[in-house]
UniProtKB/TrEMBL annotation:
Protein name: Cysteine desulfurase
Entry-linked InterPro entries: PyrdxlP-dep_Trfase, PyrdxlP-dep_Trfase_major, PyrdxlP-dep_Trfase_small
Gene3D superfamilies: Aspartate Aminotransferase, domain 1, Type I PLP-dependent aspartate aminotransferase-like (Major domain)
The species this protein was found in: Malaciobacter mytili LMG 24559
GO molecular function, one term: cysteine desulfurase activity
Phylogenetic classification of the source organism: Bacteria, Pseudomonadati, Campylobacterota, Epsilonproteobacteria, Campylobacterales
Cofactor requirements of the protein: pyridoxal 5'-phosphate
Recorded catalytic activity of this chain's protein: (sulfur carrier)-H + L-cysteine = (sulfur carrier)-SH + L-alanine
Length: 326
């Protein structure tokens, strides 16, 4: 099996759960309190809470934070959906658009003072890197950042998407200092915190595959391969590209039958058949956005393995093209 989509589909582990991990309002909850302390110490925050990582869960964050809020169009679907719901309630959201190169347009940050900015250190789907220190130089707003694929200590509030990290739950873990009221013990998902933290402690990224994959894909696909974003400007353990005249989901399904797993972005893990919203936000039409494919690397592969995978990619690509032309 070649797992080239681990940032969106986690490698689920067989964790051992004990009754000591449960919460009881009549107990001292020593096991949970030690876990919470260790989690917060690792990332240097004062408190945490859990929410459902959906538009309704994130909407709750918006309603608690209030103030002037800006949201990058490069954020997770749940955050985008929550911001749209927030606007429907009569509140104002300032949207940070994406440039054709995949970077976030920061011009709106200079127009007024913001209290919170929902912007991560990378754009969803393409994994284009965002310099949060640059954001801080422009605005005094607190940064709310999704750290599931990359943690940036510049963030003021951090979101971990448990599904993408451990695969067991749809919760999100929010790390914060003093922005929220302390969560009622009975509403905390202790199991999600445990499973997420166990996976974060062993989370592994591989940065040596990317260059080799680029070389081999170019060698095999030639003019049928193109790049939506600069590969040097994305997280070093990710690769994003497009294949001409084919829908990404056709490649995804075909390769999965051979135990090679890829993705076209966050929509895949959400069970959506829609093309990448992020690519369309960059200014591409819907048809072109269906060409987009994302890879992410957690294991090291030899040159021989990468050559084999790239050749197999191209073989399946040509087969699909021929079938589509009939």
């Amino acid at each position: 099996m070649y797992k080239l989509n681990f940032l969106l589909y986690p490698n689920v582990q067989n964790y051992h759960i004990t009754k000591e991990s449960s919460l009881n309002i009549l107990d001292d909850n020593d096991t949970f309190n030690r876990l919470k302390k260790e989690f917060l110490f690792k990332y240097k925050f004062e408190n945490l809470k859990t929410i459902d990582f959906s538009k309704w869960g994130i909407l709750g964050l918006f309603l608690e934070l209030k103030g002037e809020i800006a949201v990058s169009l490069g954020e997770s679907q749940a955050i985008i959906d929550a911001a749209l719901e927030y606007e429907k309630l009569g509140f104002n959201i300032t949207w940070l658009t994406l440039n054709k190169q995949g970077t976030v347009n920061l011009d709106n940050l200079k127009l007024k003072k913001f209290d919170y900015i929902f912007i991560s250190s990378y754009v969803m789907d393409t994994f284009v890197k965002i310099n949060l220190e640059e954001i801080k130089s422009i605005s005094n707003a607190k940064i709310v950042s999704n750290a599931s694929a990359h943690f940036d200590k510049t963030s003021d509030i951090v979101i971990f998407d448990c599904y993408k990290i451990c695969g067991y739950t749809s919760c999100a873990i929010i790390l914060y200092n003093n922005e929220f009221q302390e969560q009622n013990l009975a509403n905390i998902d202790a199991l999600a915190i445990y499973l997420c933290f166990e996976n974060l402690k062993t989370q592994n990224f591989n940065t040596s595959n990317k260059k080799l994959f680029i070389e081999q894909l170019k060698k095999n696909f030639k003019e049928d391969l193109y790049f939506f974003v600069d590969t040097q400007e994305t997280l070093p353990y990710t690769l994003h590209f497009g294949l001409k005249n084919i829908k990404a989901r056709e490649m995804i399904r075909t390769l999965a039958l051979s135990n090679i797993f890829i993705t076209n972005g966050e929509g895949c893990s959400l069970g959506l058949s829609r093309p990448s919203r992020v690519i369309q936000a960059m200014g591409y039409d819907e048809l072109t956005s269906r060409n987009a494919i994302s890879l992410s690397f957690c294991e090291e592969y030899s040159l021989e393995e990468i050559e084999k995978i790239a050749k197999f990619f191209y073989k399946k690509y040509k087969q699909i093209r021929l079938l589509n032309e009939q």
